[in-house]
TrEMBL record:
Domain spans labelled Reductase C-terminal: 318-401
Domain FAD/NAD(P)-binding: from-to ranges: 3-298
Tagged with keyword Mitochondrion: no
Alphabetical UniProt keywords: FAD, Flavoprotein, Oxidoreductase
Classification via Gene3D superfamilies: 3.30.390.30, FAD/NAD(P)-binding domain
UniProt cofactor(s): FAD
Protein name, as recorded: FAD-dependent oxidoreductase
Coiled coil: none
Residues annotated as signal peptide: none
Length: 403
């Protein structure tokens, strides 16, 4: 009977083992995770969980009984320190575990601020793991002063939670605008205005020069424009790096993450990768997607391929973010767009449609699930949308699906 070992018990690892059993794999499965918790959802960490509106148990993807009932050997709080691809073993502490097939779902690590500029002071938090958010929770109190470094999703979602909790928020984004990595200026403008309405001070084109501490605890910050702030805590949302250390030590090929083919197989035929840590071929390029939907879809395809399906992974990217009372839903990837068409609805409802030539490639929809749904279905079907119809708030979008 063969043994599949999965390293990394996050969304991708948990989805992968579930799919193996669903598809009838009867061999042994071992799922190894460095964190002590059952596999859990990360998205609520910077939203409802940080806000104190979601209990720990609701974060768990599946109850513990799922793993026992499905005969998955779950090794939590254990870190793999090495892979030997020739011997087909992984090392955990003093133990050496043999595998027939191995999957790497090692995720990604948050970038931290260097200790030389105060990144190691108490009160400086990253937001990636449950433990990080549990550490930060007590700081998020009415009247506290927070500096948020980075205007990506982590920074903005944390800013929204903090502002809602009565924290005085200053957010610095070193690029010209927030969300520059992922969205058009229209979307950045929308969220800048939204945050200002809630009193968060968003400063763009400004980075952090250094943090200032007293007795090992952060008390202030000096920004690159020379301004100084008193702060009680700092949230660092300056991006993530794929966790490739084990793969690198094992001699696997890397290329912006662990390099896989369209099936999710790495440069070693018995080793697979999925989720944040894996880069894969997509529409003539090589990409890596940092998102839950990708972690689920890709790991499910990899599970099928580990069982011999030989199926290409075709990503259909989508993302979401919650900030205050606004739900942002994104369909597609906007890379290479040359035009953005705005569809304005009532109040805070708006959507931005990205085109590359005549082709619709992505939609950002704010509180507009219909625009998102229509956009997503069009993009996935390889269809476009007449910009005149899109821009007309009175025009029904649904007929676009039949065009
Ligand atoms: N709703 C969602 O989809 C969601 C929510 C949270 C996190 N995430 C994902 O988690 C990952 C991490 O999120 P993130 O927001 O940290 O990453 P990010 O890469 O999206 O954004 C980081 C931002 O920090 C800025 N930055 C970097 N160094 C800086 C500095 N020294 N000073 C000021 N600004 C600086 C960058 O210009 C960038 O805008 C991403 O993959 C993100 O997509 C997604």
């Amino acid at each position: 009977m063969s043994h599949i070992v999965v390293i990394g018990a996050g969304q991708a690892g948990a989805s992968l083992v579930a799919r193996l059993r669903k598809d009838g794999f009867e061999g042994d499965i071992t799922l190894i995770g460095a964190e002590p918790h059952l596999p859990y959802q990360r998205p609520p960490l910077s939203k409802a969980y940080l806000l104190g509106e979601m209990e720990l148990e609701r974060l768990f993807l599946r109850p513990e009984s799922f793993y026992t009932d499905n005969n998955v050997s779950l090794r939590l709080g254990q870190r793999v320190t090495g892979i030997d691809p020739q011997a087909k073993t992984v090392t955990v502490g003093d133990e050496v575990i043999s595998y027939d097939e191995l999957a790497l779902t090692t995720g990604s690590d948050p970038r931290r601020l260097p200790a030389a500029i105060g990144g190691d002071l108490d009160g400086v938090h990253v937001v990636r793991d449950l433990a990080h958010v549990d550490d930060m929770g007590p700081y998020v109190a009415e009247g506290a002063r927070a500096l948020i470094v980075g205007g990506g999703y982590i920074g903005l979602e944390a800013a929204a939670v903090c502002a809602k909790r009565g924290v005085k928020v200053t957010l610095v984004e070193m690029a010209d605008r927030i969300l520059q990595r992922v969205a058009a200026p229209e979307t950045s403008d929308y969220f800048r205005t939204l945050h200002s309405e809630y009193g968060a001070d968003i400063r763009e084109g400004v980075g952090l020069d250094r943090l200032v501490g007293d007795n090992g605890k952060v008390t202030g910050a000096v920004l690159t424009d020379g301004s100084q702030l008193d702060v009680d805590f700092v949230v660092v949302g300056v991006g993530i790096a794929p966790s490739t250390k084990l793969a690198e030590m094992a001699g696997l090929e890397l290329d912006n993450g662990i390099k896989t083919d369209a099936h999710g197989r790495t440069s070693d035929p018995s080793i697979w990768a999925a989720g944040d840590c894996a880069s894969f071929p997509h529409a003539g390029a090589r990409i890596r997607l940092e998102s839950v939907p990708n972690a689920i879809d890709q790991s499910e395809v990899v599970a099928q391929n580990m069982l011999g399906a030989a199926k290409d992974y075709v990503a259909t990217p989508w993302f979401w973010s919650d900030q205050y009372d606004v739900k942002l839903q994104i369909a597609g990837l906007n890379t290479g767009y040359d035009r953005v068409v705005t569809r304005k609805g009532e109040g805070q409802t708006v959507s931005f449609w990205y085109y590359k030539g005549d082709r619709l490639i992505a939609v950002d929809a704010m509180n507009d699930p219909r625009a998102y749904m229509v956009g997503k279905r069009l993009i996935e079907a390889g269809k476009t949308a007449d910009p005149v119809v899109v821009a007309d708030p009175d025009a029904d979008l649904k007929p676009l699906l039949k065009a």
